[in-house]
Specification:
Distance between the termini: 43 Å
CATH class: Mainly Beta
Radius of gyration: 22 Å
Number of domains: 1
CATH superfamily: monomeric porin ompg
CATH architecture: Beta Barrel
Order of helices and strands: EEHEEEHEEEEEEEEEEEEEEEE
Shape: elongated
Number of strands: 21
Strand order of the largest sheet: 3-4-5-7-8-9-10-13-14-17-18-21
């Protein structure tokens, strides 16, 4: 009754919100149908430029250097209540509850072509995603049966480029461009494959004393996605995304920081078409909110470790056919993440 949203807070050092959250109800429903310098009080232990610290969200490698980020995330979804409304009888009844657990491994690399341009790539591996569907007694009488879905495997890789639009000692404005090619097709068992994604946006970083403030805005445009569920083929269109992020990175000491962040992502309406049954699902737009906290600590000048937690809230969403509408109510998911950041 949902699918995962990955990287809601992609601007954060530890992409902690690669969570198993309730976004894209229609996918699993269809299956059932077949993320300053200048301070007069600055001490010698503080960097001359806050952005030069590997703990900074605005950290950029020097020309010819790179930075490697490794992140492991585990997440769980609490009971998500699913209800159905019949157009013919005009009645609403509970259909099922959904629980899920998942773990993910992310590897990203960024290389500095010069002081203003970075290129890079990101790989995300869903190590395991277990989703359990528990139907009510009345639903079972109508032919539904409890079942568990287990999926794993590599998602589509991402390539990206960023460009510095403005730079001072305490201000950085960066343009972000990204693309995920279509490496999957209808024969893939990993439901996250099967369609390309283009990304664009910007980030603003502002340093003030021991704090660093971040703001980001980005959009994703999705091509047609395809996937398989048993003998059925699912084709999805629409579902473009708009994400806004806010964060404050508090430098507790020369070697330790606390990053507090929030994000809101809006997913546009989409349509799923299932063949050979010739079924069509119209999915409403919905929003996802994320709150996260990440503690970072430098092991050396070019190596840092990060540990954090996130909570994701997904708004009510629905999927309609010609005869009924199925709604997933407000739900929550939680995650823990561990990351390493290496500059070289």
């Amino acid at each position: 009754m949902f699918k995962e949203t990955i990287k809601n807070l992609h601007s954060f050092t530890v992409k902690l919100v690669a969570l198993l959250c309730v976004s894209g109800f229609s996918e699993s429903f269809a299956q059932n149908m077949a993320p300053p310098s200048g301070d007069s009080n600055q001490t010698e232990s503080e960097p001359k430029n806050r952005f030069d610290s590997i703990l900074s969200e605005a950290y950029r490698p020097k020309e010819g250097d790179g930075i490697l980020t490794f992140t492991y995330v585990t997440a769980s979804l609490t009971d998500a209540v699913v209800k159905t409304y019949s157009f013919s009888t005009q009645t609403t009844s509970k259909l099922a509850s959904v629980t899920a657990v998942g773990s993910y491994l992310n590897l990203s690399y960024k290389y500095a072509i010069d002081e203003n341009v970075n290129i890079g790539f990101s790989l995300n591996d869903a190590l395991g995603k277990k989703i359990e569907y528990n139907y009510t007694a009345s639903a079972k009488n109508s032919g539904y049966a409890d079942f568990t879905s287990n999926r794993s495997g590599m998602e589509e890789p991402s390539i990206y480029l960023d460009y510095v639009l403005k730079r001072t000692d305490n201000l950085l404005v960066v343009l972000d461009l990204g693309f995920s090619p279509k490496t999957g097709d209808t024969s893939d068992t990993n439901s996250l494959r099967g369609g390309s994604v283009a990304r664009f946006g910007f980030h603003i970083y502002r340093a003030a004393g021991k704090c660093e403030y971040t703001f980001g805005l980005g959009a994703e445009t999705l091509s047609t996605r395809t996937g398989k569920s048993g003998t059925s083929t699912i084709e999805s269109t629409g579902g473009n995304k708009l994400t806004g992020t806010l964060g404050v990175n508090l430098f507790l000491s020369e070697k330790t920081s606390l990053l507090l962040g929030g994000a809101y992502q809006r997913t546009a309406a989409s349509t799923d078409t299932i063949t050979p049954q010739t079924m069509k699902f119209e999915n409403t737009d919905y929003g996802t909110s994320t709150i996260s906290a990440v503690v970072g600590h430098t092991i050396s000048k070019d190596l840092s470790m990060h540990l954090g937690a996130s909570v994701v809230t997904t708004e009510t969403q629905s999927s309609s056919t010609t005869t009924s509408k199925t709604t997933q109510e407000l739900s929550y998911s939680y995650g823990l993440g561990l990351g390493l950041k290496l500059g070289f």
